[in-house]
Amino acid sequence: MSPAPRIDVAEDAKDLANRVAAWLVSRIASASKPFALSLSGGSTPKQVYQLLGAEPLRDEVDWRKVELFWGDERFVPFDHENSNFRMTSEALLRHVALAPAQIHRVPTDAESPAQAAALYQRALQNFYGAKTLDPDRPLFDVTLLGLGADGHTASLFPDTRALEERDAWATFIIGATPEPRISLTYPALESSAEIAFLVSGAEKRGILARVLANDRTLPAARLATRGLIHIFADRAALSP
């Protein structure tokens, strides 16, 4: 993982969510242009979204300048119980003033995972205004990521072809999980001014230690970005 991450230590999962939510509010407030935020699935991000969608934080954000994307999604209907979009919608989108054009969901209503990935890439490129990523102009202002027990992040799982994809911005993954997945690739994830990993719980302690030790066999440790990397972790995930 490069550059060396900045580590923020929380007391527990609740404290972690509060820290991340406050950090995001400050980042959005300081942005003078549309703020592109790539979201993650998972229980800890859900707590963050719930905080952002409720008072007092909800009223501290100028939602008119926020553009929302997703780092990965299961190829399931939008209202499926395993949909990251549904989780985000229930936790955040229903509670804030966002126009439909500001919500760039992965099109899982496409005919196939491959088509969904292609359509999502097209949407990303339309937003960015180019088909080639400029190292000096990040696609995202902030990218939120989780860390799986096997070291995966977004839907970049160990031993999948997606790890070697360097041309596409979005790809599909079949076989790593019961449902097909659509995921941003390394080039798209790395094109972010700041990346924040959210890691909570003692069960993540071993894998987080390996990521921090730059174990390149783990997908999460292979991010090579010019932006800043933050790791928001609670003491259970960091304690020796």
CATH class, please? Alpha Beta
Q: Tell me roughly what share of residues is in helical segments.
A: 25-40%
- Stretches with pLDDT under 50, minimum 5 residues: none
Query: And the CATH topology?
Result: Rossmann fold
Rounded mean pLDDT score:
96
Shape: globular
What strand line-up does the widest sheet have? 1-9-8-5-2-3
Taken in chain order, the helices and strands follow as EHEHEEHHEEEHEHEH
User: What share of residues are in beta strands?
Assistant: 15-25%
Give structural notes.
It is a single chain. With 240 residues, the chain is α/β, with parallel strands linked by helices. Helix content is 29%, strand content 20%. The chain is built from seven helices and nine strands. α1 packs across α2 (43-52). The longest helix is centred in the N-terminal third of the chain and has 18 residues, at 13-30. It catalyses: 6-phospho-D-glucono-1,5-lactone + H2O = 6-phospho-D-gluconate + H(+).
Secondary structure layout plus pairing:
Elements: E1 6-10, H1 13-30, E2 35-39, H2 43-52, E3 66-70, E4 72-74, H3 84-91, H4 113-128, E5 140-145, E6 170-173, E7 181-184, H5 186-190, E8 192-199, H6 205-212, E9 228-234, H7 235-238
Parallel strand pairs: 1-9, 2-3, 2-5, 5-8, 8-9
Antiparallel strand pairs: 4-7, 6-7
